[in-house]
Structures are given as structure tokens and as C-alpha cells.
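Dock pyridoxal-5'-phosphate; give full complex structure.
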Amino acid sequence: MDSGTPSTRDRVPHIETLAVHAGRTIDSATGAVVAPIQLSTTFEREADGTYPHGFSYSRDDNPNRKSLETCVAALEGGSAALAFSSGLAVATAILQGLRPGAHIVAPDDVYHGFRSVVAKVFANWDLEISYVDMSDPAQLEAALRPDTELIWVETPSNPLLKVTDLAEVARIALAAGVPTVCDGTFATPVLQHPLEYGIDMVAHSTTKYLSGHSDVLGGVLIAGKENALFASARQSQKLGGAVPSPFDCWLTLRGIETLPCRVRTQSASAMQVATFLNGHDGVEAVYYPGLANHPGHAVAARQMAAFGGVLSVRIAGGASTAIAVAAAVRVFTRATSLGGTHSLIEHRASIEGPASTTPQNLLRISVGLENPEDLIDDLAQALSAAGHAG
Ligand code: PLP
């Protein structure tokens, strides 16, 4: 298969096929099956000033970035995509498209870095932001104002794993004429397709599941249809230059080849880990949308193909016991981030800092690709070492 989006006879290829083929070409110079990394920052032009291969200067565009953008647009069923140097660079590019003083509605447990970008990077923009519980559509509806220019959602959310009903958000936003962005980092395009529900754009931190190996930082923004905020984000990408390097794009595309397999395995393992923790006496609460007792379970079951590889857990006994559990793990690694092959655990409030609204006894867990029985044994011994025999 040798072109952007592979075609079968009469239907869109499945995500496993797109993950391997979309955006890739066989190298015409050598026949290499795996694309080369094009490090050149500049491309030859004709005497008349035209660029026969469509590339002029690497900040503007380059072959590896184009491949990545074509691929993620196909994975989300979007019309176009933009690759950035981090997930937060995506949020920054979107916010740059708003007028000073604009009003935004965002989730009350949005990824804490988003709050920091609004408060610090855009401090002189005088943006007004209403943080609401997005799992309750009535709260979103009540927060909208005539000057609202953006609805930002994140589902499942980080770190409380709240679930937002995407069809409801799209319905409310359409009626109010407000553009929507869904941060789908936890779900990935394997489990959830926000554009299908009428959300305008999807954002991912590709640092997480899409690259999948904890070795490259990046972000992507995918549009269902061209729109003003997407055009402004494109301008910010090409002129502002918060772009991933060709090697970053290459690594991310390489990771995407195994995305469907990884995410399905991680979701199945996370379900086992969540079920174990849910039945443990040392655990006060488990936040995982796959559990039937999760308040967002029914919505998640409707809009997600599985429930993802991240869960959060509140440990009985408070912050010190939670920290003692994290201190005692042997298979899990104590580290921030998620979506890689290694299972990670962290005391979330301490990474979010003094302004954190996350419960002090909460540990966030990213389930990797180890055997789930080994992960469960590790958590059992760590809980026991912290005084919770089980
Ligand atoms: N969105 C979510 C849901 C995240 O969890 C993160 C990072 O943890 C980001 C965005 C930001 O991504 P990055 O660290 O690539 O800037």
C-alpha cells in the first residue's frame, strides 16, 4: 500500500490498518518500507520560485510531520490535523485564537497544566474561565454566556476519570454557536471518536498513548471541518513554530502502529486492576469508568469501545498512607505521565502543587503492558506494606 489513506474496495479501513498505513509512503528513492527521517530544514525550489515537492522550510511543513498529521486525521475521521511540540502547545494554539477577554467553559478537573496555561501564559489576555462539572450537561448550559468563545472538554478526565457526554456537549454547543474541543488523550482514537458526536476538534497529548513508549513529547489537533479556531491554530503552528522535530514525528508514527493493540491490552489489564482495588479494604474509592459503580459508566459504555488504561484510587488512611503505598511498589514505577509500556503510579496532588484540588489520598495509576497478575500482586504487597492487609 503506497499512499496516504489506504483504500479497500468499498469501506473505510479499520483503525488497525490506518494505524499502520495512513500517511505513510514507500520511499520512492530507495523502496524503504519505513520512511526515512528528513532532517533537512530547507527544500530546493525551482528557478521560478515554486516548490515541486510541496515543502519549502521545515517550520512551515516537512515530510515526517505531514505523514503524522495525515495519519492522525485518518484515525479520528477528521478532515485535517496539526502536530505540535507538546499537548499543551495544542491548548496554547487554540487559546491564541480567542479574543482578549473571551469567556471559556472548561471542566473543573481539567488536566492541571491547562489551568496553568490559562492563568499564566495568557495572564495578560484577561480570559474569563468557568470551570464546571462537565459530567452534568446542565452545568455547562448554565455557564454559557453571550461572550463564550470556547467549550473545552476532557473525557475521561485527568485525574478523576469523570466522563462527559459528548453528544450532549455538542448539542448544547451547537445551539449556542460555540466551538468545542475535546481532549481525548486518555481514550485515544482507538476507544472514542468525538467528531462522530459533533465535537468540532479533538486534541491529544501524543506524549501519552499515541507515541506510547514515554520517549517523545508531542500533541495533535484534529478538525472535523475547517473552522476559524483551527485556522488560527494552524497559523500559530506555522508562524509561532511550536512544532515537533522530524524525529519526534517519526517516533510518534512508529508508536501509532501498535496503538490499537496496546490500548486494548492496557484497557483489559486496567479493568482487572480496578476490579481488584475495588474489592480491597484498604481502598476508599476507585475511579475507573469501566466499573459499574462509576457515575459515568453508562455514558462511557455508550461512547467508548473500552475504558482505557488509567485509573485513580483513594487510599484509606489519608495522604501519608497513599504515599506509603506508592513508596512500596516494585513493579510499578513512581513517575508522572501515562500511556507508556511501563506501569506508573503517582501521588497526584504533590505533582499538581499547592493549588491542586485533587484529593490528598489519591494515587493515579497508568497500566502498562506488564502481566496484570504481576501488577495486582505488586499493589497487594504495597497495600499490605502500608498497613492494609486486604
Ligand atoms: N491533556 C491531558 C489529558 C494530559 O494528561 C496531559 C499531560 O499529562 C496533557 C494534555 C498535556 O500534554 P503534554 O505533557 O504533552 O504537554
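Observed: The longest strand covers residues 148-154.
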